[in-house]
Amino acid sequence: MPRRISLTQYLVEQQREHGHIPGQLRLLIEVVARACKRIAISVNKGALGDVLGTAGSENVQGEVQKKLDVIANEVLVEANEWGGHLAAMASEEMDSIHVVPNRYPQGEYLLLFDPLDGSSNIDVNVSIGTIFSVLRKQGHTRGVSEEDFLQPGKHQAAAGYCVYGPQTTLVLTVGSGVAMFTLDRETGSWLLTEEGVQIPEDTKEFAINMSNMRHWAPPVKRYIDECLQGKEGPRGKDFNMRWVASMVADVHRILTRGGVFMYPWDQREPDKPGKLRLMYEANPMAFLVEQAGGRATNGHERILDIVPKKLHERVSVMLGSRHEVERVTGYHADTPA
Ligand code: P6P
């Protein structure tokens, strides 16, 4: 049972022990955590607030924006632009980067986020979340451009998500393991509820959208088919399936009890490597999963090694229990390109 300490005390102790949470990074994390509390208030209002349904606009991905997508994005931008800890922000909901206005001091960090992941679940009251990733701005001139963001995920200074579910839980890594904080609504504090999170190396649970099966590449079809054969098949054990269609909820389950999550390339959009976004979905989740002893690849290489070419670049994702990700990645290696 971890000590019931606050997020602030945890960050101060991590700085004291590991010395890699400088003041600006600690402020950034606390500001994002406070913004997530504000987003949770809007999420929890549901039909009682004017937060459900569509916003009547599309994002850069060409997806119809939900009202909560726009609200969550605005909360994160407004919360982070005045503190002096950031040079710029990038969001799934914004076409280009948002540079900190000249009226505020610029900091050394870059913040990327999917402000509300799992939007299709908002109106049906299923868990959704906010995903964030933190990079350091290279160089010390005030100017900042999209190119400053195009760093591989292994350069992240921090990453995390907040899941708005039966509990509101913030999950965070600054590079020395994964910690979980549950929101105490009576006091408004984030209290430490797990630390040193470890994903079991093996699992009997996979998460994938099975309706896309006919579109998958052969290695993925082989892997899932073997799982479906159960104990009579080559895996020698039965598998269970879960698919929440909120990456945050599926990854939270995997961090909590193991499993493998896959959103692979499929032939519906052959020129796109996958559906999920590299910079503000796959990279933060891959950082968390690796910090918890799991693995995260695109079927061919470690996600955290991928050097992005574009801000809203997509990627194929296989992450979770080490032995399962290694198996399905190995099937890709066995298959001629
Ligand atoms: P599908 C949510 O829109 C999301 O980006 C991820 O959170 C989730 O894993 C995936 O898309 C669900 O996609 O095609 O199953 O609706």
Automatic annotation (TrEMBL):
<dbReference type="GO" id="GO:0042132">
    <property type="term" value="F:fructose 1,6-bisphosphate 1-phosphatase activity"/>
</dbReference>
<feature type="domain" description="Fructose-1-6-bisphosphatase class I N-terminal">
    <location>
        <begin position="6"/>
        <end position="195"/>
    </location>
</feature>
<keyword id="KW-0479">Metal-binding</keyword>
<dbReference type="GO" id="GO:0000287">
    <property type="term" value="F:magnesium ion binding"/>
</dbReference>
<comment type="pathway">
    <text>Carbohydrate biosynthesis.</text>
</comment>
<dbReference type="GO" id="GO:0006000">
    <property type="term" value="P:fructose metabolic process"/>
</dbReference>
<comment type="subunit">
    <text>Homotetramer.</text>
</comment>
<dbReference type="Pfam" id="PF18913">
    <property type="entry name" value="FBPase_C"/>
</dbReference>
<feature type="binding site">
    <location>
        <position position="281"/>
    </location>
    <ligand>
        <name>Mg(2+) 2</name>
    </ligand>
</feature>
<keyword id="KW-0963">Cytoplasm</keyword>
<dbReference type="Pfam" id="PF00316">
    <property type="entry name" value="FBPase"/>
</dbReference>
<feature type="binding site">
    <location>
        <position position="116"/>
    </location>
    <ligand>
        <name>Mg(2+) 1</name>
    </ligand>
</feature>
<dbReference type="InterPro" id="IPR028343">
    <property type="entry name" value="FBPtase"/>
</dbReference>
<feature type="binding site">
    <location>
        <position position="117"/>
    </location>
    <ligand>
        <name>Mg(2+) 2</name>
    </ligand>
</feature>
<keyword id="KW-0119">Carbohydrate metabolism</keyword>
<dbReference type="GO" id="GO:0030388">
    <property type="term" value="P:fructose 1,6-bisphosphate metabolic process"/>
</dbReference>
<keyword id="KW-0460">Magnesium</keyword>
<dbReference type="GO" id="GO:0006002">
    <property type="term" value="P:fructose 6-phosphate metabolic process"/>
</dbReference>
<feature type="binding site">
    <location>
        <position position="114"/>
    </location>
    <ligand>
        <name>Mg(2+) 2</name>
    </ligand>
</feature>
<feature type="binding site">
    <location>
        <position position="114"/>
    </location>
    <ligand>
        <name>Mg(2+) 1</name>
    </ligand>
</feature>
<feature type="binding site">
    <location>
        <position position="275"/>
    </location>
    <ligand>
        <name>substrate</name>
    </ligand>
</feature>
<dbReference type="GO" id="GO:0006094">
    <property type="term" value="P:gluconeogenesis"/>
</dbReference>
<dbReference type="GO" id="GO:0005829">
    <property type="term" value="C:cytosol"/>
</dbReference>
<dbReference type="GO" id="GO:0005986">
    <property type="term" value="P:sucrose biosynthetic process"/>
</dbReference>
<dbReference type="InterPro" id="IPR033391">
    <property type="entry name" value="FBPase_N"/>
</dbReference>
<comment type="similarity">
    <text>Belongs to the FBPase class 1 family.</text>
</comment>
<protein>
    <recommendedName>
        <fullName>Fructose-1,6-bisphosphatase class 1</fullName>
        <ecNumber>3.1.3.11</ecNumber>
    </recommendedName>
</protein>
<dbReference type="InterPro" id="IPR044015">
    <property type="entry name" value="FBPase_C_dom"/>
</dbReference>
<feature type="binding site">
    <location>
        <begin position="117"/>
        <end position="120"/>
    </location>
    <ligand>
        <name>substrate</name>
    </ligand>
</feature>
<feature type="binding site">
    <location>
        <position position="92"/>
    </location>
    <ligand>
        <name>Mg(2+) 1</name>
    </ligand>
</feature>
<dbReference type="InterPro" id="IPR000146">
    <property type="entry name" value="FBPase_class-1"/>
</dbReference>
<feature type="domain" description="Fructose-1-6-bisphosphatase class 1 C-terminal">
    <location>
        <begin position="199"/>
        <end position="332"/>
    </location>
</feature>
<keyword id="KW-0378">Hydrolase</keyword>
<feature type="binding site">
    <location>
        <position position="209"/>
    </location>
    <ligand>
        <name>substrate</name>
    </ligand>
</feature>
